[in-house]
Amino acid sequence: MATLTVDCDRPAATDLPRADNDPVTLHRTMQTMIGEGLRQHYQPPQKLSHELFVVLLQLNEEERRRKAAERAGRRAR
Questions:
Q1: Are 25 and 18 in contact (CB under 8 A)?
Q2: What is the model's pLDDT at position 36?
Q3: What's the rounded mean pLDDT across residues 23-41?
Q4: Suppose 15 and one of 11, 32, 51, 77 were both cysteines; which one would form an S-S bond, judging by CB atoms 3.0 to 4.6 Å apart?
Q5: Cβ distance 22 to 29 under 8 Å?
Q6: Is the pLDDT of residue 21 over 80?
């Protein structure tokens, strides 16, 4: 069985300063940019415009009236 030894006097890889063109820095930058793009694309809008909100209310009201008329028609039979 092998044992793992850690040299405490040596700085960790994450503690070392990174150059802007370092592959690790570039990879993190790309991940951040991709993540922000995906968030913007897939995150639902937080606020509806007033016009869209009014149309949504009208559609819901029409659907409610249609269902009420169907129920009334079934009762009349």
A1: yes
A2: 93
A3: 92
A4: 11
A5: no
A6: no
In this structure, what token pair is assigned to residue 17?
């300063």
Rounded to whole angstroms, the Cα distance separating 17 from 53 reads 51
Q: Classify each residue of 13-22 as buried b or exposed e, where b means 16 or more C-beta atoms within 10 Å of its C-beta.
A: eeeeeeeeee
Contacts of 25 (CB under 8 A, 6+ apart): 18, 19
Nearest to 34 by CA among 26, 45, 22, 44: 26
Residue 44 has which token pair?
């639902």
Q: Which amino acid is at 70?
A: E
Residues 35-73: pLDDT tens digits?
999 998 888 777 778 998 899 999 999 999 999 999 988
Angle at 61 between CA 60 and CA 63, to 5 degrees: 65
Report which residue type is found at 12.
Answer: A
